[in-house]
Amino acid sequence: MEIKSRYHLRSDAIGELRESLAEQLGIDLDGDRFESVETVEGGDVVLVDGEPLVAEFDGEAFLTVAGANAYPPERRVVTVDAGAIEFVSNGADIMRPGIVAADEEIATGDLVVVAEQTHGKALAVGRALVNGPELTGEEGRVVESLHHVGDELFEFSA
Question: Which of the chain's termini has less CB crowding within 10 Å, N or C?
Fold first, then answer.
């Protein structure tokens, strides 16, 4: 990812970001230095103390995989079994049979963190295609993958 511009966030923008993530995910994003990085490819990445912990997905600020591992969310989490890890880590959309648990408050269109069952580590960020209670079941694609372990955003450094 090539950097187009980079600037420090104002304190009011930092407050809005923290408030939004607290409301969505139940986390307290903490840091001393918040910088916004606009990439040539489009979209912004927010560096918190130099780490890419937040990114814009379709215009909505949300944790990256690194951010979800640094600040494990309390809400909007979809948990997958060991059999799904390889597929999710390679960018595949999430299918119902691989899901073992999901936040019932998730609404269609919400950004979600996809985590693995054994250690709770985040593997991907995606967009829910159905409501929380409908995420588990026998068949069907239910979360569109937007960002995953090993992609350009995961490897991003500024």
Answer: C
User: Maximum CA pair distance of the chain?
Assistant: 47
Q: How far apart are CA 43 and CA 45, in angstroms?
A: 7
Domain 77-154: CATH class, spelled out: mainly beta
The domain limits of the chain are 3-69, 77-154
Angle (nearest 5°) at CA 115 between 42 and 75: 85
Q: In this predicted model, what pLDDT tens digit does every residue of 118-149 receive, in sequence order?
A: 999 999 999 999 999 999 999 999 999 999 99
Q: What is the CATH topology of the domain spanning 3-69?
A: Nuclear Transport Factor 2; Chain: A, (3.10.450)
Q: Are 111 and 103 in contact (CB under 8 A)?
A: no
